[in-house]
Each structure stands twice: as structure tokens, then as C-alpha cells.
Amino acid sequence: MAQVGIFVGTVYGNALLVAEEAEPVLQQAGHEVKIFEDATLADWQHYSDKVALVITSTTGQGDFPDSIAALFHAIKDQLGYQPQLRYGVIALGDSSYEHFCNAGKQFDALLQEHSAQRVGEVLTVDAGEYPEPEAITSPWVEAWAKQI
Question: What is the C-alpha to C-alpha distance for residues 54 and 91, in angstroms, rounded to an integer?
């Protein structure tokens, strides 16, 4: 099966909780999984020919949480073409804000520009509709695990 790196961007812990809920789901599907908080570019590059799952909330005016902002900018400024990478994105946000799930959407757009291969659709989770995000993310991860 696949080696999956879960790259987490969180402020209050919800994205990390989603990652911790996703880990056993992916492992039960036979995948090898590692969760990264405050990931480095080297961590990301280790998965360049494997699978990355980005799970991030959005903060401020559509900004990245500090725990993933540096990774996003390093990928943007230093990497470029990543055609071997397969990835998924779970974006957490609140639709009452103008830039709903913008961090996850930006990460997806960047990886698309780099010719990475998205597996499935980006999952956007509205905190107003799903106060416990794992109610929607766990079924998505189960389906995603079968596609990678």
C-alpha cells in the first residue's frame, strides 16, 4: 500500500484532531502513516513520490495557521514541478467568514500548479454545520484511502 504523510495546519487543534482520527482509518486500509505538525520542506520532499494529505484550518483573513504557513511558502518558493506526488486536501473553516477554507484551497491550487495529482475532491468542512468535523472527515478519509 501507500506511504502517507499527513501535514497539519492548526490553530486550536481541530485539524490535528482530524489528522489523529484519519491515521487509524488509513492504517486499517493498509497504509503507512505519519503525522507532521510544523513540517519542514525536507519532511514534504520525503513524500514527493508518495502520498500527502494536507489537513488545515484557515485563520484570520483566509490565512494559513503558523504551523503550516512556512511549509506552504517553502513549497511555493523552492519546489515547483511535482508530478509524482499524489495528494488530498481537507480544508476546515467557517462559512460565516469571507475566505471560507481559503488555506486548504490555496494549498490545492499550489499543488495543481506544480502538476501534482490530486486524489478525490478537496473536502471543505464548515464548522458551523459540523462542530465535530470527524463526522464528515472520517467517511471521506475511508473513501480516499481506497483511491490511493
Answer: 8
